[in-house]
């Protein structure tokens, strides 16, 4: 997989992010995505199911998709990790740049619903990621 794959997926608005339960069952979720260099970035609630699953395993499958999660390309394996506070701030900046006012409104609404706050997720197509443990 190449930089072209990252650029192609990152140019879209949505990414299908499949995380895995402890029993190996995949859980696909459509999420907003931004590309930065050789990585893809995702924003999620820190106490969401996908964040909990990423704490257990960084193995994910990704593919471009629409807002309902319908795949728009082939799923590819990748490695994901939850980011620390400074990494999450980088994701927030990237999302503000890409999505502008839409993300600002989403972020305000999300703060009222997210008891544990938000966390950034970094996805890389090459190599393994180690999960940040709480």
Supply the key terms.
alpha+beta, seven-stranded antiparallel sheet, disordered C terminus, Pnp Oxidase, Chain A, 134 residues
Structure description:
This protein has a single domain, classed as Electron Transport, Fmn-binding Protein, Chain A (Pnp Oxidase, Chain A). Helix content is 34%, strand content 34%. The protein is globular and about 35 Å long. With 134 residues, the chain is of the alpha+beta class. The protein has a 7-stranded antiparallel beta sheet with strand order 2-1-5-6-7-4-3. Helix 3 packs across helix 4.
Write the layout of secondary structure elements.
Layout: H1 3-11, E1 14-20, E2 26-32, E3 34-36, E4 39-45, H2 49-56, E5 59-65, E6 76-82, H3 85-99, H4 101-113, E7 118-124
Antiparallel strand pairs: 1-2, 1-5, 3-4, 4-7, 5-6, 6-7
The profile of the biggest β sheet is: 7 strands, antiparallel
CATH architecture: Roll
Helix percent reads 25-40%
Using the alpha-carbon principal axes, give the shape: globular
Query: Uncertain spans, ≥5 residues at pLDDT below 50?
Result: 127-134
State the separation between the terminal residues, measured CA to CA: 31 Å
As for the number of domains, it is 1
CATH homolog superfamily: Electron Transport, Fmn-binding Protein, Chain A
Strand content: 25-35%
Q: What integer value in Å does the Rg equal? A: 14 Å
Identify the strand order in the major beta sheet: 2-1-5-6-7-4-3
| Number of helical segments with 4 or more residues | 4
By secondary-structure content and strand pairing, the structural class works out as alpha+beta
- What's the number of extended β-strand segments? 7
CATH T-level topology: Pnp Oxidase, Chain A
* Secondary-structure element series: HEEEEHEEHHE
């Amino acid at each position: 997989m190449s930089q072209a794959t990252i650029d192609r997926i990152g140019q879209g608005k949505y990414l299908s992010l499949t995380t895995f339960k402890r029993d190996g069952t995949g859980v696909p979720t459509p999420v907003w995505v931004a590309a930065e260099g050789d990585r893809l970035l995702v924003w999620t609630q820190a106490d969401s199911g996908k964040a909990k699953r990423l704490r257990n395993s960084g193995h994910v499958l990704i593919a471009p998709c629409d807002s309902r999660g319908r795949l728009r390309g082939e799923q590819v394996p990748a490695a994901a990790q939850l980011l620390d506070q400074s990494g999450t701030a980088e994701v927030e900046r990237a999302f503000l740049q890409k999505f502008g006012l839409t993300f600002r409104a989403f972020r305000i609404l999300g703060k009222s619903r997210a008891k544990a706050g938000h966390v950034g997720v970094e996805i890389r197509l090459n190599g393994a990621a180690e999960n940040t443990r709480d």
